[in-house]
Amino acid sequence: MSELNNIAQQIIQKGKGILAADESTGTMTKRLESVGVSSTPENRLLFRNTLFSSDAMKSYIGGVILYDETIKQNSLSKNKIPELISGTGAVPGIKVDTGAKILANSTEEKITEGLDGLRERLKEYYKLGARFTKWRAVYIISENYPSKLSIHSNAHALARYSALVQECGMVPIVEPEVLMDGDHEALECFNKTSEVIKKCFDELSRHKVDLKGIILKPNMILPGTNSSKKIDTKKIAELTLKCLKVSVPAEVPGIAFLSGGQSELDATRNLNSINLINDTNFNITYSYGRALQQGALKFWSKNTEDIKGTQKIFNHRVKMCSLASSGKWSENLEKN
After folding, report:
1. Does residue 192 have an active-site annotation?
2. Per residue in 86-113, pLDDT tens?
3. Does residue 195 carry a catalytic annotation?
4. For 20, 284, 313, 336, which has the most beta carbons within 10 A of its beta carbon?
């Protein structure tokens, strides 16, 4: 096994998943202000430090995606944040894209930026302790979208990013997210997501990226948030697994799904349903942000000094997702 494959396997080992704590300062500000907490560097650190020092980290978290601000901070116990994470057995990671901007000649679609100067930034992040990275591309579904231009441009950027990351000795998370926004049916999501993922792997292969040393972070196959044709969790699982089978090469060690705006419960339930019928060799787990943190954040906002209480909420949510990553979750366990 290559060193990159070893890192990937450590992050997504059975029963563990990824905590996406890479919200930008702007996004984190919205989250904190939505629960009445002022978004200062101290408060952002306090909440994240509370999660990173929880019992769940040792048992259920294989990797943590950080933001530029956080990876350079010291924890409340005065050690570096990456050291705090590594001490739990999890792998520190870092978001390296600089955000999605309007794609030229496509007024509604976006292209993710951040390739300029990336090689130098990666070297710095490696020295800071990061061993994996994340780059998110976003696609919208409508009658005309995603366009060929969007699909090709974002796949090319993801491939260039991945090649640079592996060059620096880190594992790239490849995140092509087909957004839930819209009134499309699940079948349309299946078709578009399959096309997007296939194109990503075409470009990854063209750029000589070692597929055994990446982690794919896709969306699940869901109807649009405004769709009149909802489907049950069993159908979501069937379509999602079918998409992986037709789109993802067998060399890829694992899939860590994004929650993509699903509720904590839905993200857990759907992951469990996928693993109940998972007949692939992929280790299928979670890379959740809000779907792991929202309950803990709401509790914490009422008393930011109640660390243990906040951690209890977080520990439960992560345990539920861990069980779902093995197909062992049930609704009854949520009541315990």
Report:
1. no
2. 999 999 999 999 999 999 998 899 999 9
3. no
4. 20
